[in-house]
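thread: overnight batch results

M.L. [08:02]
morning all. the overnight job finished for the chain we discussed friday. pasting input first so we're all looking at the same thing
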Amino acid sequence: RKGKKRKKERRGTRGNKTRREETKGEETKGKEGKSKAKERRGKERKGMHRVFNIKCEVLNKAYVYEIVHAFLNTIMFYRTVEGTFEPLSGSCPSLTIHYVCVPCDQVRRDIDMQTSKFSDMFDKVNEATMFLSFYSKGTGLFGRKKVWESWEITINVTNLHEGKIPPNYRETLSESVLHNISNITEIMCRETQHLEAARKEKDCILVDTSCPEKPYLYEIKCVLPGQEETQGGIWNLLF
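M.L. [08:03]
and the structure it wrote out:
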C-alpha cells in the first residue's frame, strides 16, 4: 500500500511539474507575442516618416539658387496631387535645365524666399542644408504636427574663382542636377506607402485647402552645419 501511495505521489509531482512547464511556456509565448507586436507597431510608426537626402557639390555659390530652386519645385509638384491645375515650366538659365512648377502663388513665394535665404548663407559658410517637410495636423484645438516625409538638400560649395572653373563644368553640373531631378521623380512614383499610411490617419488634415492647387501641408527650413532639424525620423534613401 505504501508503495502504491508513493507511486501516486510521484505521478502527481510529475503532473504538477508538467503543468508548471506548460504554463511557463504559455507565458513565454505570450511575452514573445507582445514583444513582436510592439516591434511591429514600432516599424509601422517608423514607416510613417521617410527621409530622403540630396547631396550636391558645386564649385561656385552662384549656382546654389538655381539648383535648390529646381529641386524644391520638382518635389512640390509631386506633392500637390489633390487639386487640378496646369503645371508651369521652370528653368535654370545658367545650366539650361527645365523642370515643372506648381502654379500656386503661395508655394512659389515660399520657395523663392527660402531659396534666396539659403543661397545668401553661402556668403559666410561652405555647406548648409535645406529641409522640406510634409506633415499632417490634428483637427483638434491643439492638434499637433506629425511629419510623414522630409527632404534634406545639402549643398557644399568649393567657391573656386570663375577663372579656375573647368570650361565644361556647366555641362557636368547640369547632368548632375538632371540626375537628381530624375531620382526625385522616380522616388515620388515608387515610394508611396508612407503617404498612403498618412492618408489613413483619422482626424488629421493633410492638404492646404487655402490654395486652389491643394498642396500637402509643408514647411521649409534652412540649417547650418552643426545644427539639427528636430522634426523627423532616421530613415535615409541616398542617391
